[in-house]
Amino acid sequence: MLNARMVERMKASGAIRSPRIEDAFRETPRHLFLPGVAHDLVYSGQAVVTRSDPERGITSSSSEVNIMAPMLEALSIEPGQRILEIGVGTGFNAALLDRLVGPDGQIVSVDIQPDVVEDARAHLAAAGHSRVTAVAGDGHAGHPALAPYDRIIATASVRDIPLAWRDQLREGGLLVVPMRFRLAAQIVVTFMRAGDRFESAGVVSGGFMPLRTEQEALPKPVTFADEWEATLDSPREGDGDLVAELLRGEPSIEAFRAIPWQMTFSLIGLVDPDWIVIGRKQQATRWWGLLDRSSRSMVLIWPMPLPMAAARSSLLVYGSPAARDRLAALVDALADVRVERLRVRAVPADGQRPAADAIFDGRNFTYAIDWRAAKNAGERGASAT
């Protein structure tokens, strides 16, 4: 009953669009992959943290189902396909994939944490998914022994697509991956392999913890005043002192229009490198905003996250109005941009640099993002009606 209600909510929200994805969720009880967790929480559909430590933070979880389903929809899975999953988690997503490919298909899931893999194997066996191959290893390397794959899906975010994933994906195959272009901005991109590059076939909003690797150290937040920390894409010396100084002042509170979640989580951070996320250590609450160093000012959005039905939000303005004015201009510029209409291209980093509205450089690929076309498409669609 609880599982059925969760699926109905996912259908109502638009997370589930196709009968095959609906059937996979109905036939795969989530509680088998979260033993010991209260069923009310399991079937709330929320993300459930399964491992964490004081130094590295959250290291494994069961993702929120309302992002899992759109990613599975984006894969366009056909029976009999071979799929590589990067990040096994509890094994729940691998079980859904297994149902979708059927007995003639094959699921391979790689995770860097051996104990996570061991637990996932136990969960999969208990749920009757013994065909899934769960492997302990560095996800950045994929799993070449069973390549090529028809589809690859990553359940952790990356700033740069590993070359191994491209090389292990067949021509025309699909890669669904959360891209962490900036620390405070993520989008989940469905890429199609086209030779040595990728072209986006779809985009949705969503955020995942970073893919962990033995070779790469994850960036740490800027810490200040002992109890606070801030996430900035390119922190500079003195940022902690500046933010601490601003927070000691009394902010002015100004009424502002409602800012869509997709804009704050995905779009503004893509467009403006000074997007900032502030929070108290060891607490989940975060404030999102903009730091303007030249004017020594900052603006934070309140409340955050903004309730879905809210018609208005408020701004906490620290220092001069400069940061507030920058934020207002960004909101105006991005008002008609649809995340799902973004175009993202990944071209080899050693090739010709593409032209685009925003460029992000990785070691393996250069990423070209066109967001003004997404805005124009939204305006055309609105005028056509």
Keywords:
alpha+beta; seven-stranded antiparallel sheet; Rossmann fold; 385 residues; globular; 32% strand
Describe this structure in words.
The protein has 385 residues and is of the alpha+beta class. The protein has 3 domains: 2-156, Rossmann fold (3-Layer(aba) Sandwich), CATH 3.40.50; 224-334; 339-384, no CATH class. 29% of the residues lie in helices and 32% in strands. The chain is built from 11 helices and 19 strands. The chain has helices spanning 2-13, 19-26, 39-42, 65-75, 92-101, 114-126, 163-168, 239-248, 261-271, 322-334, 372-384; strands spanning 48-53, 57-62, 82-86, 106-111, 133-136, 149-154, 169-182, 185-194, 197-205, 222-224, 228-232, 252-257, 275-280, 286-292, 297-302, 312-318, 343-348, 358-361, 365-370. α2 packs across α5. The protein is globular. Mean pLDDT is 88; it is low at 378-385.
Brief characterization of the structure:
The protein is of the alpha+beta class. The chain has eleven helices and 19 strands.
